[in-house]
Amino acid sequence: MSHTAHIPSHRKPRRSASKTALRAGVAGGVLSTIAVAGAAGPAQAEPVTQTIEMPTITAGLSTSVAASAQATQAVALDLETQATEDAAAATAAKTAKKAKAEAVRKAEARKKAEAAAEAKAQEAAERASRSAERTTLSASTGSSDSASSSSSSSSSSSSSATGSAASVVAFAQSQVGDAYVSGGTGPNSWDCSGLVQAAFRTVGVDLPRVSQSQSTAGTQVSLDNLQPGDILYWGGAGSAYHVGIYVGGGQFVGAQNSSTGVVQKSLDYDPPSGAVRVL
Fold it and tell me: What is the pTM assigned to this prediction?
């Protein structure tokens, strides 16, 4: 016996064709039996093979969402526009109120400045019209001669003035010696137009306050045809810088300046530019 006689072979034995066919037949029979059994079984065991199609709503939904978003955006834009308009209106109202207040303030300041400038201009013009030479001439005149001249002039003028004119002249002469104060309206200090206005007020005549207006308050008369009570002015009619009252006898009374106060002087002392007659 050889050494390899008892060693089993590792190769699988070949199956015969008959066995293979038999096994195939058995398998086919089993599968057929299963198929038949499945067909005969309960209906609920049948597998679901039908596909259910759900309606598509994406297109309609997107249109609705887009419309809603657009409407929301429009509302937001309207609100923003309204807010902007309200803010602009509030700012405009505030600016207008401030501008109005500023305009009122400026108008008041301008009015005060004009009044102050007018008073200063009038005072400066009055002072400028009195030269140093005239001041020296006045100072060189004896006080006794001046007093007697004034007294005689007063008597002469009083006798020639009548009615309302006499009252105006008498009032003006009674203020001689009072102080001159720019803007003064009495009873013990005057400026030129304040004295004239007060004198005419004693006879019920209400004259304007300033020299410029008083120089056109009546009928213009020639300096060669003066009567007691006429208003004398220096400068142009309507732009006069000084006024006084003619009291007769070639004399006038006026609030001249802070140095002389209210005086009665000859027309030669300070020749006027013109005259107006009110009475």
Answer: 0.47
